[in-house]
Design a protein that fits this description.
321 residues; N-utilizing Substance Protein B Homolog, Chain A; 15 helices
Length: 321
């Protein structure tokens, strides 16, 4: 699954863009945010497309090599270890992948250039040499080889990056996240485990009564972070001793806005979970000591709100550790 932290980051990016653009059309901005999250699934399938289609390209090259005027012994009897095994065959026949791939509409004229480049480079890759020299393979062998192959040769290939940039201005940035998710998905894929074969979904499906709806979580977080901007700025100014609001880094401010929105407007999420998540986001995206400043401010505002009875948690939100 695509986790909540990724959803929080996507909301934060949209909050930042909304304020920076001077846009006042909240419904339109919200729809754009939801669409951009839905697009994460498309990026996953684009990754899988190039991964599996390279395997098909490789197989075609082995067949064509047999047609040379003077084929070598390796041309006549090629090593087919990476294209003919239970792991890759299961991936190629995975109905969930077929459905997602069939919905893609790709126009990538440089596809063969990418495959040729990978084809020439993989032959010298030490993991490739180790893999094709084996006599037998475990599930872990397959998982390790194909996930590392994807990461090494497909995920960050310049031609794929160029294609993603041409498709959508945000796709190239999102690829950093989706490349990792695709890598982990391949690494955990198991032909004997149907759950591991389900592609990651941007919004977690609701299976049980009481489950939180990811899409509603995103909408609640985005809308209320935007609508309560002035209120959260007042709280920051009140508790940020010796700091003028305008001197604070914008991203630091918006992280505090969003964290407080989640703490107040998402009653089933524990306060500690929200704080931990936004501190990690601050460590990832802000300046070196921002997370310390953000943590201190959040604790001060939360203490104040708790004294006033303004934070009301229910269910799992009542968990304190």
């Amino acid at each position: 699954m695509i986790g909540r932290r990724i959803l929080r980051i996507k909301v934060l990016q949209s909050v930042y863009a909304f304020h920076l653009s001077g846009n006042n059309d909240l419904p339109s901005a919200r729809n754009s945010l939801i669409n951009s999250i839905d697009d994460l699934a498309k990026i996953f399938f684009i990754n899988i497309y190039f991964f599996l289609n390279f395997i098909k390209f490789y197989k075609e090259r082995l067949e064509k090599n047999k047609e040379k005027f003077f084929p070598s012994e390796d041309d006549i009897n090629p090593n087919t270890a990476i294209i003919d095994n239970v792991f890759i065959n299961d991936l190629l026949h995975n109905e969930n992948l077929k459905s997602g791939l069939n919905n893609l509409s790709l126009d990538f004229p440089n596809e063969s250039d990418l495959f040729w480049d990978v084809y020439k480079k993989i032959k010298d890759w030490y993991l490739y040499q180790n893999f094709i020299s084996k006599n037998s393979y475990s599930l872990e062998d397959y998982q390790k080889f194909y996930s590392k192959f994807f990461k090494q040769f497909i995920a960050f290939h310049p031609l794929l990056k160029s294609y993603l940039e041409s498709g959508n201005i945000s796709w190239s940035d999102d690829q950093n996240t989706m490349a990792l998710i695709t890598y982990m998905w391949i690494k955990n894929y198991n032909p004997q485990n149907s759950e591991s074969q389900i592609p990651p979904q941007p919004f977690k499906p609701i299976k049980n009564i009481g489950d939180e709806d990811d899409k509603e979580f995103v909408k609640t977080l985005f809308d209320n972070t935007i609508l309560n901007k002035n209120k959260w700025d007042e709280e920051i100014q009140k508790h940020a001793q010796n700091w003028e609001l305008q001197r604070l880094n914008l991203l630091d401010r918006y992280i505090i806005h969003q964290a407080m929105t989640e703490i107040v407007y998402c009653p089933t999420i524990p306060i500690k979970t929200s704080i931990d998540e936004y501190i990690e986001i601050a460590i990832q995206f802000c300046t070196e000591k921002s997370h310390i400043f953000i943590n201190g401010l959040l604790q001060a505002i939360i203490d104040d709100y708790n004294k006033q009875g303004l934070i009301n948690k229910t269910g799992r939100g009542l968990i304190t550790n």
